[in-house]
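Homework help board

Subject: predicted structure for assignment chain

Our instructor gave us this sequence and asked us to write out the predicted structure in token form, then describe one feature. I got the tokens but I'm not sure how to describe them. Can anyone check?
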Amino acid sequence: MPSRSLFATRFYEGTLADAALLADLEDSALTLAAEDRAGQRWSRDHGYRGYTSYASLNDLPLRDPAIADLVRHLNRHVAAFAADCAFDLGGKRLRLDSLWVNVMKPGATHSGHIHPHSVVSGTVYIAVPPGAGALKLEDPRLGLMMAAPTRTADAEEALQPFVYAQPRAGTVFLWESWLRHEVMPHAGKGERISISFNYRR
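My token output:
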């Protein structure tokens, strides 16, 4: 063909295939949501519909053995993704910088954002009720397209301005931290539970 794709944006989808660990992580997340007063207050003050430990607890792998076990799994996923991205890390590995729990109630959403000062970001999904909403990923060139026409509905995924990645319990999504993304509204019933994280050099 006379055309080729340039500047590919990598997106990783893996699986945490450990039902017992997922159950332990769900218990941990719900316990934190019930007991972390600082996180409850931050969530309320910032209009977060549900609970997040994002601004309250920065030592979860030390506090909780299930989360420490999760980090061992994530380290392997992130190493595989870093290799696929052809990162030159000088023989070293990316290391966990931050990790936080999210318990989203019906109607909850998270607007478009990036994760500054990190290399790889991601989310592992613990409980995903039907209708919980996808992760929406934005083409990083979108603001530069100016007069470009829209794409046909059957255009390949890499040509669309937005891609929607639908998780299920145990899904691990990874992306480079500069990639703008958002959480679509939770239109289901029950709580959508996930753990998000950043890795850096």
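Reply (TA_rk): Your tokens look well-formed. For the description, you could write something like this. The longest strand covers residues 95-104. That's the kind of observation they're looking for.
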